Request: fold
Amino acid sequence: MEESQSNRLINVKFRPSSGEGFDYSFDPGQLTVRQLKERLTSNTTIPADSMRLVYSGRVLKDEDMLDLYGVKEGHTIHVVRGAANRASEQAANVPPTSSGQRNTNSTTQNSPFGMNPFGNFDQDLMRSMMNSPMFRHILSNPEIVRTMVMQNPTMRQMIERNPEIGHIINDPSFIRQTMDMARNPELMREMMRNNDRALANLETIPGGFNHLRRMYHTLQEPLESAGRNNDQSSEAANRRLAEMLNVERPPQGRINNTPLPNPWAPRNNTNSTASLSNTTNLFGGIPSFGLMGFPSAQMSFPSPSSTSRITNSTQGSSQSTTPNSQTNGASNATTPTNTPGNAPNFPNINLPQNLSMSTDPESIRRIQQVMQRYMTSSQFASRQQMPQSYYPSLFGSPNPFFANMPQLLGASQTSTQPSEPPESRFRVQLQRLEEMGFMDQAANIRALLAAGGDVNRAIELLLGNTSS
Amino acid sequence: MASPATLQSALLLQKQLKELSKHPVEGFSAGLVDNENIYEWEIMIIGPPDTLYEGGFFKARMSFPKDYPLMPPKLRFISEMWHPNVYPDGEVCISILHPPGEDKYGYEDAGERWMPVHTVETILLSVISMLSTPNDESPANIEAAKDWREDYPAFKKKVQRIVRRSADML
Reply:
């Protein structure tokens, strides 16, 4: 085998772990691995010392001849940077920085602090950074830290609006403590545990809950709304929902014993009916209302752990207990259910009649019938291009959508004919029909129009047509 | 050796081996332990960049059953390994290597387990992804999982040690 292969150049592809691959021709009978590596240095940035050639599941050894490994024409050899003699430094330093850098970059985007040490950070990176003399020097000067924080517009805005938070930033001992904490994960963990316990204890003290709530309003809310980039959409959505449901804000500070509004009652508010006639708006709003598992409510708590880290750090210096995720839980306790976050604004999401309705199969069926009839008549659902699969999830959750049914029906009178041509309106449905083998597009559109966008009904109609 | 099933698996593996040596996939290199035996593969897994395992070269053996691809191969690290989803003896525990049918672990979908469409390539890609994101819900190495969850610095230290050793072994 050696004999036949000697004096013969073969062309082999080389594939470095980063950068372009290249071809190189050599004679495997004449070359040791080491010699090959030295020839390859011109093609790669890897020095021969730390170059590793991997072929067929093996790392090629420097002293071996290449034909020992049976490298053949057209095959590929991996070229990787090995650890060489500096194994320890490379293994210890390179990976964390490269991966950590990316982490911090992504957190800066949405964290209230310009360089938030408390987001999803790489603890080790953080620690090594904090321990560097330059950083220590910077951070030992509270003035610099303050300027850094104030340079972030969101932070500045928040502090201007909430002087209480400004105090924290101005407190040098707080900053020092925070930095200590960032430097030492053990300390941080300890602090967070203490904080959690303090909050848990606070709740059992008479009046403690109110205190928690107050803290929540003064600290957590501004912090979060600052982090949210003034995103009003969920609040606006809440307001719209509350309006549609005839709800007023529950009285603050005492038990809400006003009777729940009757969602079926005729509306006396003409304004809202007008807005309801715009069914697109109504439907488009529904997902953002967070009915399916309350996504919007959760959005305002993008990462409970990271917010709790922020607030926990606040607690570090002032020793005043600060709200964290526990507070969120506590404020939920005011509502009859465990809906997260901003649910207190509309506790009637789980109206009893809604609940019973959504669990009673009979009423679900009836509502489905009503809805189907309704859709057939006004074709409104098709305008939303709402995937049919939405329905199960709508029906599966206790859902104000039901409460809106009368208004929807009322609104159907005012809803105008859609301006979009049916081809684009029913794009999704048409595609499905075609996949099922209904190739006559004109007939499909006709059926979809008649079925109000319901693919199943359209199929029934199509089949009925062909059989009759 | 001449039974149809054996022939099929051997042909399939032969084809995959040829394909991989011509067009290898980023992150690993595969060959045979012994050129006479197509069922025992030698794998070199290159520690994926930007993970704790970067810089490491981990040797592994992949043993195919004769009824491959109906049944999954076994993958075992020869190099020392410290990872929540690798048993202390080196055997890799990922769902796609678990045989189809009865679910002895009780938590996996059939779709997550072995399917004949999997190849050496898809398995190794799963392994590489496993290296970058351990699944600590079904740990094979309890100690490693505990470290990973509760004492990350210690976990990291141990991984760095095995990475260093694997590089030194070259």
